[in-house]
Write a structure and sequence with these properties.
Blueprint lengths: L24 H8 L5 H6 L2 H11 L5 H22 L5 H24 L9 H5 L1 H21 L16 H13 L15 H5 L5 H19 L3 H10 L3 H6 L24 H11 L5 H11 L2 H5 L5 H23 L12 H4 L5 H10 L3 H6 L3 H11 L2 H13 L6 H16 L6 H17 L3 H8 L4 H13 L7 H10 L4 H13 L19 H9 L10 H17 L3 H10 L4 H10 L8 H18 L6 H4 L6 H16 L18 H28 L3 H12 L11 H20 L12
Helix pairs in contact: 3-4, 4-5, 5-7, 5-20, 7-10, 7-16, 10-11, 10-14, 13-14, 16-18, 20-21, 21-23, 22-23, 23-24, 24-26, 25-27, 27-29, 28-30, 29-30, 29-32, 29-35, 30-32, 32-34, 34-35, 35-36, 35-37, 36-37
Length: 749
């Protein structure tokens, strides 16, 4: 079946054609046929199944992994055969793609499996090119074997066990009747009679021969030479079976061992020369049969119908040529070989030349129009040109037309296989392929699969990719699982969740500028996203310090634009025990004080809490005249506002620890909030006090604002200070109207 016959065993030999289908196939097929795209529905499980296989097999079991990839594809090809009964065009497309992927996995298995374990001839041991070329032939024959199945057992011929039975019957009738035929037939039935007499066989025998020869070629194309010989014998053509033996290399084992049968054909040179001469006379399939066994490319290509057929023909001839050259160089060539054409004897075949020839064949239907991706992949794999392969991958990814999802899955697992072998690959392309596959999984909501493939990316890229994925996860109930999968895959969950929150909160950048806006702003859809995103930092208590920092940053922006309800919503998400949790985590293994960043974040959180506490009294200024609890409410709001204005240990939104990492943006925002919020609170408190006729207390507010201890005057603009003084003038005039001095004290007489 190949040049090394029993001495060289193909790594793909022994594969059976057992059925893939269980008893439940009919029910499953019926359900799938109800889908808009039943083929895609049937193949959808390949995505989680490939991941399961990848996780299951370690790098030491990489070849078992390849076998499992093949099996998974074969199963889906089998299902799609059943589903094609509905003639769904999409299903046919998926069937073709998976069939090609199965073939490519088989090629990878052939070329990268441990073929050196097999004892081969010295040539195959020494020459990697011929060894690899034979592997390609074996691979292509195994594909063809899958396609033809057991058809040879079911072929019906007009003649049964007798060669040219119908012609024989006609000759017997003529002998009995003594009459001549209207159409002259051969008068003898030896194998050469039709050529020697230049007369035809009976019509039914000619049809039988034509079908037999086509089927014999199909068997030889599938590497089933022995099966072809059995078919010849079954049809009464044992002589033809004998002619298919002539290609085998001659070997006499009795020179070095005990008496054993002689192998091969001692007159192989004569047989080969005859095959070349016969190629000018025989039926096209008969020519192809003997050409495939004797290295004659042109008649062989005449019957090739597919890309695989053409590749097989070229590599079959290449192996034949290399073996013959080796025999010639060793002085074992037959004299008859000199009669073969010069182009055969002087051919200098290489794998690169094979594919140049294939390109020149102008197989437009196969190579030009469809640009079948797997054929291109197979070409580069055969050549061992991984750089060229990954350049193709890069080109495919940059085209406007999206790649088929199953092709992208294959590309991903192929590069992971090459990585497991320690092969040098184009890292940029690897990253692009993995990112494209991750995007596909995210798009198709294959949530459980994303983390494992993201973990194959460089750490910085992995953090960005998984953070982008988490942004799309809107169902709160599956968020913990997404983080657990990330942890299991070895991703930096802390960096990822931080990036998710930062990315969302930095959208629609709020300007921290001084403005006169006083109305409460409504909560928008984007605001809700910013409120919701903080949840990512709350699943793991170890991230509590980061959740405090990020929630502070979100609330700063909400406060800047008077979105107090939104700020409160963020504040309410932070667990009440956060500060205690942060201190506990730090004190568990540390003797030093809390990091400056964490301590400042805690203080900022308390500052924001103090500010939000007065908000429920924000309408007090307008309602105070009607409230029966005016005094109580006034005291309460006064206390809460003073808690902000006179915030302990340095002031509201001012860090205590100055030894933290520089964060100019944060410091700018905190300073801006002081300028925005403190004057606002001051005017509110002033209005409350004046509306409740507490003018003397209103005037004391001036002492606090002007105090060098608190330096609150620094956060007021000149215009605000002018307005503040005008408001105080109103209180002084009111006190004068009561008979008191401008500061509220009794006049001295």
């Amino acid at each position: 079946h190949d040049w090394t016959n029993s001495m060289y065993i193909s790594p793909v030999s022994g594969m059976d054609n057992s059925s893939f289908f269980s008893d439940d196939t009919a029910n499953l097929s019926s359900a799938l046929l109800k889908e808009d795209d039943p083929g895609e529905a049937a193949a959808a499980s390949l995505f989680p199944e490939f991941l399961a296989s990848l996780v299951k097999h370690s790098s030491s079991a990489v070849f078992e992994l390849l076998d499992e990839y093949q099996t998974l594809c074969q199963e889906k090809v089998g299902f799609s055969v059943v589903l094609r009964a509905g003639q769904n065009s999409k299903t046919a497309g998926v069937h073709w793609l998976l069939q090609q992927e199965n073939c490519t996995w088989r090629l990878i298995t052939s070329l990268y499996s441990e073929s050196e374990k097999v004892v081969v001839e010295q040539l195959f041991q020494r020459d990697a090119v011929i060894r690899q070329s034979q592997l390609v032939v074996d691979w292509l024959e195994s594909i063809a074997k899958d396609k033809i199945g057991d058809f040879s057992d079911n072929i019906e011929y007009y003649a049964k066990n007798v060669c040219w039975e119908n012609t024989l019957h006609s000759l017997k009738l003529r002998r009995k009747s003594g009459t001549a035929f209207t159409v002259p037939l051969v008068t003898e039935l030896d194998p050469d009679a039709p050529f020697r007499q230049q007369r035809p066989l009976a019509d039914l025998d000619r049809e039988d021969d034509a079908r037999l020869l086509k089927n014999l070629f199909s068997l030889i194309r599938a590497g089933m030479t022995e099966e072809a010989q059995r078919l010849c014998k079954r049809c009464g053509q044992a002589w033809r079976a004998a002619t298919l033996e002539g290609w085998k290399l001659y070997h006499d084992p009795n020179r070095t061992s005990e008496l054993q049968p002689i192998e091969g054909n001692p007159q192989r040179g004569i047989w080969k020369a005859c095959c070349w001469r016969m190629a000018e006379e025989l039926n096209r399939y008969e020519r192809a049969i003997y050409s495939s066994l004797s290295g004659n490319l042109k008649p062989l290509l005449a019957v090739c119908e597919s890309w695989e057929d053409c590749v097989w023909a070229h590599f079959k001839v290449m192996v034949d040529s290399l073996v013959e050259k080796e025999l010639m160089s060793s002085g074992m060539a037959h004299q008859e070989m000199d009669t073969l054409p010069r182009e055969y004897l002087e051919a200098n075949w290489t794998m690169e030349k094979v594919f140049e020839e294939l390109q020149a064949l102008e197989l437009k239907r196969v190579l030009e129009e469809t640009k079948e991706h797997h054929h291109i992949i197979q070409k580069f794999v055969i050549l061992g040109d991984l750089d060229g392969l990954f350049e193709e991958f890069s080109d495919w990814l940059t085209t406007s037309k999206p790649l088929p999802s199953h092709l992208l899955r294959f590309m991903t697992h192929l590069l992971l296989f090459f990585r497991s072998l320690g092969l040098a690959l184009k890292e940029e392309v690897c990253v692009d392929v993995l990112k494209a596959y991750v995007s596909l999984l995210v798009r198709d909501q294959q949530t459980d699969l994303v983390a494992r493939y993201v973990s194959q990316l460089p750490p910085e890229v992995a953090t960005v990719e998984y953070a982008a994925f988490l942004e799309t996860v809107n169902q709160p109930e599956i968020r913990p699982r997404c983080l657990q999968l990330a942890t299991d895959a070895g991703l930096d969950v802390a960096a990822i969740t931080k990036l998710v929150v930062e990315t969302v909160r930095e959208r629609d950048e709020t300007e921290f500028t001084h403005h006169s806006q006083t109305l409460e702003m409504g909560t928008t859809k984007e605001d809700l996203r910013k409120i919701d995103v903080i949840d990512w930092l709350l699943f793991d208590p170890a991230h509590r310090a980061e959740s405090l920092k990020q929630s502070n940053a979100i609330m700063r922006k909400f406060l800047a634009v008077q979105k107090h309800d939104a700020a409160k919503a963020v504040f309410s998400k932070v667990p009440e025990d956060s500060m205690r949790e942060i201190y506990c985590q730090w004190s568990g293994g540390q003797t030093t004080s809390l990091p400056a960043e964490d301590e400042n974040a805690i203080r900022e959180h308390l500052c924001i809490r103090a500010y939000l506490c007065w908000k429920k009294y924000s309408n007090l200024a307008s309602l105070s005249a009607w409230s029966c609890r005016l005094d109580v409410l006034t005291e309460d709001v006064k206390e809460r506002i003073y808690n902000v204005l006179l915030f302990v240990d340095g002031g509201w939104m001012i860090d205590n620890r100055q030894d933290s990492e520089p964060d100019s943006e944060r410091r700018h925002q905190m300073a801006a909030l002081r300028s925005l919020c403190l004057p606002r609170l001051t005017f509110l408190l002033l209005s409350v006090l004046q509306n409740s006729s507490r003018h003397q207390e209103a005037l004391r507010l001036a002492d606090i604002i002007s105090s060098d201890q608190h330096r609150l005057y620094q956060v007021f603009s000149k215009e605000e200070l002018r307005r503040f003084l005008l408001k105080l003038r109103e209180s002084s005039l009111a006190l004068l109207d009561r008979g008191l001095d401008p500061l509220g004290y009794e006049l001295q007489t």
